[in-house]
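Researcher: Next sequence.
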Amino acid sequence: MTPSQRGFPHLDAGGNARMVDVSGKAVTVREARAEGFVVCSAEVVAALRDGTVPKGDALAVARIAGIQAAKRTPELVPLAHPVAVHAVDVVAEVGDEGVALMATVRTADRTGVEMEALTAVAVAGLALVDMVKGLDKRAEITGVRVVAKSGGRSGDWHR
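Model: Next structure:
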């Protein structure tokens, strides 16, 4: 039995990675949500809350970076399909231990946008770390994961 016959459509008969052909799938409205967290020091948390991060509005930069990243996912993830990204919302909420990041991506297309949501969170986190690294060299991104998806043949899923 070949890898593609065993239910791994991203592998050809020889086990080589390939892009799945989605041209025969129906266009449906699809949405994916992802989350992540940037752990940072009390000094960074205070600076984010007070708006005194030396490099500027770190949360705004993170949100814009996440939106931009979602739209460029196929350039970064080799087997991700180029999809029409119709909406991206990136939220950055400061808490006592750092910043919670959440991204929601919507499309009307033939395949889902889980990778776009994950990419949005990951790059928002990277941008935030870049903005605060002068205050906290230990800042780190954790817990990047899909938390929900809807639409498509497999239907809805929630973590």
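Model: The CA atoms of residues 34 and 146 lie 4 Å apart. Residues 28-150 form a domain with the Alpha-Beta Plaits fold (CATH 3.30.70.640).
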